[in-house]
Specification:
Elements lengths: L2 H4 L2 E2 L2 E2 L5 E6 L1 H18 L3 E6 L4 H9 L5 H7 L2 E5 L12 H17 L5 E6 L13 H11 L7 E6 L5 H9 L3 E4 L2 E4 L6 H23 L1
Parallel strand pairs: 3-7, 3-8, 4-5, 4-6, 6-7
Antiparallel strand pairs: 1-2, 8-9
Helix pairs in contact: 5-6, 6-8
Length: 219
C-alpha cells in the first residue's frame, strides 16, 4: 500500500502521528458527519471498531451505521464491530475509575492486534461525565494520562465531546489534553496541547491551591 492508502482519515483529513484525538461537535448530526466516514473506512479496510456509547443510543447508533452501508449484524457477529455501553466501560461498578479505564483501553488495543486486525479504531462518547457519578472529576486527569499510553500504539483513539453539554472551563482543559483535535469539523494538530508531565503537575498545584483555600475559608 502507498502512504496515502495507509492514512487514517477523520473529518476529511489524514490523521497525524499523534492519534489521541478529541472531536468537539454540536449534536448528533454534526458528529455523524465527522465519524461515520471514519468508521466506514475502518470497516472497509478490515480493521476493528470499538465504540463506547450511551446505552440509550445503541439501537439508534446501529441504524446510523446501516445508513452508510455497514452490515452491523455481520460486523458484530464477527467481532469486527464492538459496541460497548458506558456501564461496561467508563462506569463499570457504578463509578469512573481512571486507572481501570486506562487498563481497559490498553487491553482493547492489544486484543485487536491479537485477533488479527491491522488496526483498532476506538471511539468514546463522554456525555456520561455530565452526570454526578463517583470519580467523574478524574476525567481530565484520565485524558492527560492517556498520553502516556497511546503513543505506544498506532491505533487512533477518538474522544467525543458535545459542546452543548459542557462549560467553557472543562472544554479548555479537555482541549489541552489532546495533541490532535477536530473543531468546527476541521482536523488539526493542537497548538494548545500540554504534555502529561506538565499538565498533571498543574492539576496537582490546582488541587493544593483549592485545598488551602478551603482551609483558609474555614479558619
Amino acid at each position: 500500500m502507498t502512504e496515502q492508502q495507509d492514512a487514517v482519515h477523520l473529518a476529511g483529513s489524514a490523521l497525524p502521528r499523534s492519534r489521541h484525538v478529541c472531536v468537539f461537535y454540536r449534536g448528533l448530526d454534526e458528529a455523524d458527519e465527522i465519524l461515520l466516514p471514519f468508521i466506514k473506512e475502518g470497516i472497509d479496510r478490515g480493521e476493528k471498531i470499538v465504540h463506547i456509547i450511551d446505552p440509550k443510543q445503541r439501537d439508534n447508533y446501529l441504524r446510523r451505521l446501516q445508513h452508510v452501508a455497514i452490515d452491523t449484524s455481520a460486523a458484530e457477529a464477527s467481532g469486527q464491530l464492538d459496541v460497548r455501553l458506558w456501564d461496561n466501560a467508563y462506569l463499570r461498578f457504578g463509578r469512573f475509575d481512571q486507572h481501570g479505564m486506562l487498563a481497559l483501553l490498553e487491553e482493547a488495543l492489544t486484543e485487536g492486534r491479537a485477533q488479527g486486525y491491522p488496526l483498532t479504531r476506538i471511539l468514546g462518547h463522554a456525555d456520561w461525565a455530565i452526570e454526578d457519578f463517583p470519580g467523574v472529576h478524574d476525567l481530565v486527569e484520565y485524558e492527560s494520562r492517556l498520553n502516556y499510553v497511546l503513543p505506544k500504539y498506532p491505533d487512533p483513539v477518538v474522544c467525543l465531546y458535545d459542546l452543548t453539554k459542557y462549560d467553557a472551563e472543562i472544554v479548555i482543559d479537555i482541549l489541552r489534553t489532546h495533541p490532535t483535535v477536530v473543531v468546527g469539523g476541521v482536523l488539526q494538530e493542537n497548538p494548545f496541547y500540554v504534555p502529561p508531565d506538565d499538565f498533571l503537575r498543574e492539576l496537582q498545584a490546582r488541587h493544593l491551591g483549592n485545598t488551602a483555600h478551603e482551609r483558609f475559608s474555614r479558619a
